[in-house]
Amino acid sequence: MYQSHFGLEELPFSLTPNTALFYALPPHLEAIQTTLAALEMGEGIIQISGEVGTGKTLVCRMLIKQLPELFELAYLPTPAASGHELRLALARELAISVEGDNTAVTEQLQQALIERKAAGKSVVVLLDEAQALPDDALETLRLLGNLETEHEKLLHIVLLGQPELDHRLDQHHMRQLRQRITFRACLRPLDLAETIAYIEFRLSSAGCQRELFELAQYRELWKASQGIPRLINQLCHKALIAASSSNAQSVGRKEVLMAVKDTLGARQPKWTYPVLWGWH
């Protein structure tokens, strides 16, 4: 691998979300700050949306790390198959013993939430991949979001999902849930300056002490990745492998084009073959 070739302490472009390599770019920072502010104001349902690869899972993990102590967390990373399963999953996360039908389980959850509120604790549930929840489960979220005292919500819900979630919520029969989402944040793709800052931060965090990319290569990486962090990671990873394989001390256009050609989802540039084959 290229780690020793470039004198790196670790691989900077792993696809596994790593909070140690989190860089507070504007779209991610805005989503985190919006969500934390909404929770502190006592809002019931908050939505974070973003295309595949824009960093929703990493944002979710940063939210978990930054959640104030007064909040108790229930993290549901896998979509429930039904409303009843969602209730049971929430109860398990909160270590609440429940039994009976949906009405009974909801009443037991409500009583447990009231007890936590009396003890000074607010419960936050983070639901990842929310676009995959069936209508029954989304309706359950609406009903759970209605649980409240005379003055405040008993349960705060953060939905993280792909843009398909917006399409689901735009449907007429989802209007009640849609109206209860008080704050939204969107993880947009990175612009060129943000892409450069992102790559340089990752390299620096991994112990890189010299420039491995020039501006022209940054621009090619940005265009090919369309500003999607997951694609940026894949492209940089493969470009560095190609550079180390040829014993190069930095990444050139040839290595970037090889990475682009090998990456599904990357925007392919025109006339790459002459460069790839060493033609001039």
TrEMBL record:
InterPro entries xref list: AAA+_ATPase (IPR003593), AAA_22 (IPR049945), ExeA_AAA_ATPase_DNA-bind (IPR052026), P-loop_NTPase (IPR027417)
Xref: CDD domains: AAA (cd00009)
Limits of the AAA+ ATPase domain: 42-187
Family matches, as SMART domains: AAA
UniProt xrefs under Pfam families: AAA_22
Name recorded for this polypeptide: AAA family ATPase
